[in-house]
Description:
It contains 6 helices and 7 strands; from the N terminus they run E-H-H-H-E-E-E-H-E-H-E-E-H. The protein is of the alpha+beta class and 183 residues long.
Amino acid sequence: MSGSEIVEFKLRDWAVSDLENLILQANNPRIAANLTDQFPYPYTRESGEWFIGFANSHQPRRIFAIEINGKASGSIGVFPQDDIHRLNAEMGYWLAETWWGKGIMTKAIRQMVEYGFSTFAIDRIFARPFGSNKASQRVLEKAGFKLEAVFKQNLIKNGIVTDELYYSIRRADTGIPWLKPHD
């Protein structure tokens, strides 16, 4: 399959029946290398069981499976912050390596931005890719995110120190109206 072919996907709730495929897809050092240490490698059955339970523990939902060809092949979430950061939400995501470079994640991010601003009283959605993760930076830019900050040599992953980048998109950039007044 070439990168120019259209791949259909949908965002949906995680299900217990996704466990085997989640373990199969997530147990990849190339995926884990670009995520926080909370995303384990190796990715075990216990990791998957915990994650599916956590993904389904919030209402409204914050985390969705990215389903391709009937199988959960990645995940995307938006996480509203609290206290003085309550007008913000962080976005996190990953996709099975089989589907990299097919335009799926850019579209999934756009859908999740719309969901986030339509569901939560937030003004800004941000993501924090590693400086070394050029692919994630590109998909964020294609989805309308702007680079706000670079924190030099701020992260350490697998013994390698790298930059942390902050990308964001504002509600005003999307045209999605506020749900309720905010203070």
